[in-house]
Specification:
157 residues; alpha/beta; Rossmann fold; five-stranded parallel beta sheet; 5 strands; 20% strand; binds adenosine-5'-diphosphate
Length: 157
């Protein structure tokens, strides 16, 4: 079974990685789908977000990555995936995610959204807060992997 994991990954956090690691015990292949068009304006460029996805994909077997634009269900179908993976941290995630999943189901009834509840130790992590801490020159080592941290540090900004 193939699953796609869509998101902005702006940047890639330990919360995202936790979801990937755990999903791999249920799926044969996982494709990280880095969204190109985004309602949120991303801080990291698409190229940078793809490079971070590549770093993560290299760490795990059976994980690939690609960027996509347009409907997530269309990207899933084009990749022979019948499942969309999303992570849930709490009730605010739930409200948005349930709405999104129901609309995606209406758009393509053959594709199911699968949710994993965030692990306790990464539940507080959000890309938004990581970006904020980075902009204030704070320490993000507890929120992103060492590989992603090195990548971000090496970016000339
Ligand atoms: P999007 O803009 O599509 O929400 P994100 O990169 O913010 O993209 O998130 C991608 C997915 O990862 C979403 O399902 C989000 O809920 C989930 N996610 C983000 N951070 C965490 C975390 N700390 N624990 C579990 N899931 C998470």
């Amino acid at each position: 079974m193939i699953v796609i994991y869509p998101g902005s990954f702006d940047p890639f956090t330990l919360g995202h990685e936790d979801i990937i690691k755990r999903a791999l015990s249920s799926f044969d292949k996982l494709k990280i789908a880095v969204s190109e068009d985004n309602a949120k304006t991303s801080v990291f460029s698409l190229t940078e977000r793809l490079e971070m996805a590549e770093i993560i994909a290299k760490k795990y077997q059976n994980v690939t990555f690609a960027s996509y634009k347009g409907l997530t269900v269309d990207f899933a179908k084009a990749n022979d995936a019948n499942f969309i993976l999303r992570g849930l941290r709490g009730t605010s995630d739930f409200d948005n995610e349930a709405q999104l999943a129901l609309m995606n189901k209406t758009l393509n009834n053959s594709i199911e959204t699968i949710f994993l509840i965030s692990s306790n130790n990464v539940r507080e992590i959000s890309s938004t807060n990581v970006r904020q801490i980075l902009s204030l020159n704070g320490d993000v080592t507890n929120f992103i992997s060492k590989e992603i941290n090195s990548y971000i540090k090496a970016l000339k900004r």
